[in-house]
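I am going through a labmate's work and have reached the protein record below. What it holds is a sequence and that sequence's fold in token form. Please read both lines and tell me whether the tokens look consistent with the sequence. Do not assume that whoever made the record got everything right. Thanks in advance; the entry in question is below.
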Amino acid sequence: MGKYFGTDGFRGEVNVDLTTEQAFLIGKYLGLYLDKTMEHRPKIVIGKDTRRSGDMLESAIIAGLTSTGADAFLLGVTTTPSVSYVTRTEDFDLGIMISASHNPFYDNGIKLIDWNGKKLNQNLLDEIEVYMDSPRFDINVKGENIGVVHDYSKGREHYVNYLSKIPKNKIEGLKIVLDLANGASSSLAKEVYGKLDINVSVINDQPDGFNINVECGSTHIQTLQDYVIENQMDIGFAFDGDADRCIAVDHTGKEINGDLILFVVAQYLKERNNLKDNTLVLTEMSNMGVLDALKQQDLSLVVTHVGDKNVAKEIHQNNYSLGGEQSGHIIFSEHSTTGDGILTSLMILETLMATKTTLHEKVKNVAEYPQVLKNIKVKNKYELLENVEFKNVIKDIQEELGKNGRIFIRPSGTEPLIRVMIEAKDTQLVKHYINKAEEIVNSFI
């Protein structure tokens, strides 16, 4: 990862880690780069989530772009996958999404999407970082060459229409609730489901600039679980702030995370010969119990490093059909180049309609290993993980666990955190070792 851009764009606390000056320079460099490489006037489409700082950062990016002669097309409040879709299908040179995904409101981020609807390549991100640290302000256009800003809200409509045509089976007879995290999907998801004539209940769909992800959405699933149980719903779906994740809840209130979602939809695609090479792409964070269940379905598994960009890279390089993360980033390559929470919810519903069963029935025989993930705040996550003494202590824990479990430690790609995961067949082992691991991390920091 670079100085500014992590696994999912440039993200941090607004006006502390991520400033308008930096946003301006990103826009300016992108405009300069596109002007050099394109034979036409550059066209960039921009979306944002519901954070208070979104308008401010959007304005800074626009200023940078238009000062170089690039035109900006504004989608307004929309989801990350919608920006990806519009960029790749409507002749744009680049897409920009202003969002910090599942982070709290005081954070924001800038995600860059290439003309194929995929994350921008690392080489270009490195070039942007170099420019940000030594910018040139004398490169500006004048007069009629200054870029123009266009309202492009119709792009959202195109995306809604596209999603509404994907399900192959009529979705009916289910009591469905959507938790929209007071985020980017607050209107879009309702529009998609409305197009499909599906009656849904909706919670957390009143964004105020500050309440995005607050005790709601895919990272606070208890809110949805309580609603499903109290209102006797058949199924619930929770998205994150920019709606590239989806976590489901069955009628009993059980959380159906990304691993289990993949287990459900992979079988459906395989039965219909829509799963290339009967192969599924997952990450090293995937639950060992789910991996065992997938192997019993005669599925081939490709395991990547954590990060949806690593899953996406593996899928795109080998033309695989499906992959994702436990966190709910699921990529259906036939329909999207990136994780799409709304699309994932529709594919789950299509699967249930086609197989005439419930989500609970689909996963009831999957024996997940107990797994606990702790997020520990640190000043320098990379310094700790490179400490030889620390690595040796962690290695000792893994040897103690042996074949009964595993410890997995990684830096967050989006926050100043160390993520510590313990997984084992026995719950008591998990509790013991997660406490031990947390004590060790804290002793080193």
Observations:
- The chain has a mean pLDDT of 94.
